[in-house]
Amino acid sequence: MSCRFTMSRNKLLAKRFLHLGRRRFSVVVTHEDLKQEVRPYEDIPGPRPIPILGNKFRFIPGFQTYDFSDLLKFNKKLYDEYGPIVKFSGLEPNNDLVFVFNPQDIETVFRSDSQWPFRPPLKSLAYYRKHTRKDFFKGVGGVLIDQGKEWQEARHHVNPILMQTKVVQMYAPKIDQVAEEFVAKIPGWIDSKDEILDDFKNEMHKWALESIAVVALDTRLGCLADKLDPNSEPQRMIDSVHTLLEVLHNLEFGGEAFLWRIYPSPSWRKFVKVMDFFTDVSYKYVQQAIERSKSRPEGTEPSALERLLARDPNPTRGVIMALDMLMAGIDTTSHSLTNVMLHLSENQDKQEKLHQELQRISPDPYQPITNEMLNEMKYLKACIKESMRMMPVVTSNIRMTTSEIVLSNYRVPAGVDVLMATGAMSRFKEHYNEPDKFLPERWIRGGEQEEKANPFVTLPFGHGARKCIGMRFAQLELEIALAKMMRRFRWEFKYGPMEYKSTLVHAPVKPLKFTIFKR
After folding, report:
1. pLDDT digits (tens, 9 = 90+) for 121-159
2. Percentage of the chain with pLDDT > 70?
3. How many folded domains does the chain comprise?
4. 444 with 357: CB under 8 angstroms?
5. Host H or E run for residue 325
6. CA-to-CA distance for 158 and 147, rounded, in angstroms?
């Protein structure tokens, strides 16, 4: 709020207080009283559009006035230039985009969600499923792109499966097995300088893909095999995810954001090729799961995929769930694990404190990690939370307003995309003490350094009905893998600070040349 409006509010309160005279009543300012303070939508500060081109030119290479390659820095720059609320208009055919940096505004956005919260979909993905491959998807979009009743139906099918603690815990032994195979290979990747091989990032992606495929496709893909053939299905899937994130960013926010709708641009052609490959692979494994379910021994627990198929025998629903989990669960999970390892490498005292906890809970470093053990690993969970606060893989949450709301004393009409810049906000001093320091202790309940920040500041998995559907599985994968890696090895990183690049996710770009010492 500007100084002028703060003064206006104070004058209003003073006027009402004087009007009450000596009566001992509390001062109450009604919504009607404050209406005059609410400014029109047109007054929200932000980059001004120009005739014909609007603000679209700011996203076109050669004309960019902002660097979109690092969204955390971009969001912070907007905040520094314009304050807690910023408007990008003139983005037709897209909606206006309003950035907010205030937790009260973020709470207002989420509280104003209708029965069917509207999260703007990836338009290219929606077009692919609804038009390009309507022969296969037949109008079913899934939780990532459907809205309204269709979204509610999709969520109705997957929520009881992917968000149910019992089902998630059922996968701990399988996720542990994948992590064990991965961690057991690490000694063979260390050179004479105690540094890990240059291709460790790809190995991390292989671990993430193998882990999520256990859930999404109900199978082991074999990603952890030594020296995967570049043309093998697992390696093609890993490569396809990287390509997918790059082209999606270009199609949604980059130089082709307004071109692919007119003609099949290069990124669009790559996107269709990758999506066709993912769809075919997912369909193959869903069909295999259907056949297995027919002969599953009575009394054995069905898999997550089998549970979904029991709720909706249409295999398309199973394919969509698998596609959504694969697209959202490979790079995000591997980058999250990378980030917490980097933070622990840069803070050896915190790494040692974590190792002591792991030693106590898991005296045998080679024993399986169970759900009961994970429940005791308070500091490990705090390390992951703190890493996600400092360097989130997803830098913001977004909603489209379905009715008029007031944000930072500005009217925001329906039909505006509100981007809640939680990643940048999580580094603001007004929310956390020493926000640039890695302090897992701030997340330990009852601890001396516990902090109780506004719950709408740090939201790595989103909030409300449309929060990340695979959140619980991602946490399980991260916790088990991190516990095993930190229990057996001490990690250093001598090539920092890490550099990051934003596509649809915020990802490290330097080689992961960790120095590793066996415990």
Report:
1. 889 999 999 999 999 999 889 888 899 989 998 888 898
2. 93
3. 1
4. no
5. helix 315-329
6. 15
With beta carbons less than 8 A apart as the criterion, state whether 229 and 237 touch. Answer: no
Nearest to 380 by CA among 352, 354, 356: 354
Q: Which residue has the tokens 């929060």?
A: 467
The answer to whether the beta carbons of residues 472 and 436 sit under 8 Å apart is no
Amino acid at 353: K
pTM of the entire predicted model:
0.89
Is 256 part of any domain?
Answer: yes
Q: Are strands 97-100 and 397-400 parallel, antiparallel or unpaired?
A: unpaired
Whole-angstrom distance, CA of residue 87 vs CA of residue 483: 43
> In which domain, by residue range, is 436 found?
123-394+426-518
Determine, yes or no, domain membership for 26: no
> How confident is the model over 447-476, as a mean pLDDT?
94
Instruction: Give Cβ neighbours of residue 209 (< 8 Å, ≥ 6 apart).
Output: 221, 223, 234, 237, 238, 241, 326, 330
| Distances from the Cα of 238 to the Cα of 116, 127, 273, 339, 437, angstroms | 33, 23, 14, 19, 33
CATH, residue 374: 1.10.630.10
Does residue 32 fall inside a structural domain?
no
In a domain, 364, yes or no: yes
